[in-house]
Amino acid sequence: MADLVATHCPVCHSVTDHDHYLSRGGYLHSLCTNCGKDISSSERVESGEPQPVTKHCAVCGVDTAHVRYLSTTGYLHWLCLSCGKDVRSSANVQ
Ligand SMILES: [Zn+2]
Ligand SMILES: [Zn+2]
């Protein structure tokens, strides 16, 4: 089943359906099903496919869908599914 997330697209300049998927290499992606913009996480995802949470993105300037994930290197990340900005914790998560 497609896992569509309605979030802002910086290319379309509107809210569009994004297909949020895990690549074969273990990276989290978000594909705009309208224009084809495809962003990916900066690190591999340790486990599962996290559920998106809506919060403000400083880069997008609007509320967008984000996913919180744990990378294989043990850091906590927040990835904006709209622009691909990936924030990482400074320390390893226990
Ligand atoms: Zn788009
Ligand atoms: Zn963003």
Question: How would you describe the overall organization of this protein?
Answer:
- This protein is an all-beta fold.
- The strands form two sheets. A four-stranded antiparallel sheet has the order 1-2-3-4, with no helix packed on it. The chain has a four-stranded antiparallel sheet with strand order 5-6-7-8, with no helix packed on it.
- Strand 7 and strand 8 form a beta hairpin.
- The protein is globular and about 40 Å long.
- The model has no long low-confidence stretch (mean pLDDT 94).
- The structure holds zinc ion (2 copies).
- The site of one zinc ion has 8 residues, from loops.
Sheet having the most strands:
4 strands, antiparallel
Helical content stands at under 10%
> Which outline best applies?
globular
- Low-pLDDT residue intervals, each spanning 5 or more residues: none
Order of helices and strands: EEEEEEEE
Q: What is the helix tally?
A: 0
Tally of extended strands? 8
| Cα-atom radius of gyration | 13 Å
Mean pLDDT, to the nearest integer, reads: 94
Strand content: over 45%
**Class based on secondary structure composition and strand pairing:** mainly beta
Task: Report strand order across the widest sheet.
Answer: 1-2-3-4
Q: Kindly, what is the distance between the CA atoms of the first and last residues, rounded to a whole number of angstroms?
A: 33 Å
Bound molecules: zinc ion
